[in-house]
Design brief:
The chain has 160 residues and is an alpha+beta fold. The chain has one domain: Hotdog Thioesterase (Thiol Ester Dehydrase, Chain A), CATH 3.10.129. It is built from 5 helices and 6 strands; from the N terminus they run E-E-H-H-H-H-E-E-E-E-H. A hairpin with a 4-residue loop joins strand 5 and strand 6. 28% of the residues are buried.
Length: 160
Amino acid sequence: MTQAGRCLEDLAVGESAQSSWSRVDREEMLEYARRYDPQYFHADPEAAKSSVFGEVIASGLFTAALWRRLDHSISGDIAWICGVAWQDVRWPVALRAGDEVRARWECVGLRPSASDPGRGVVEMRYTLENRRGEVVFTCLSINLVETLAGRAKRSARLEA
């Protein structure tokens, strides 16, 4: 069930938001890598010294998870149904322990669903950037969000 929040009609193309800054914790980064992405340059600080990075760097999936955690602080007021696709996913700059990062979204597209009037499609450009202004993660995300008609229908069902 969707939570209360802003519906498709409440959003605008060009609207954006950004989170506060968060420092990347080395132990959290290493723990994630050792469990889910044990490539030596993510999980082994000694071995990573001989990599092209010269030190351990965050796994791309850890970077995306960190973005997601920060994004929740700035998009929790939207009546999300679910995400359905990521396109153009990039990690242009390595994320390193101690980096400070913030998440940002920009609404780049809105349209009603062709198959369900209770849903709308929202396209968001997501980024995670470091204090140096470098983007460390970006993607275009296709998401479903509740419409005002969908909220009314759901409320009527719950009241019945």
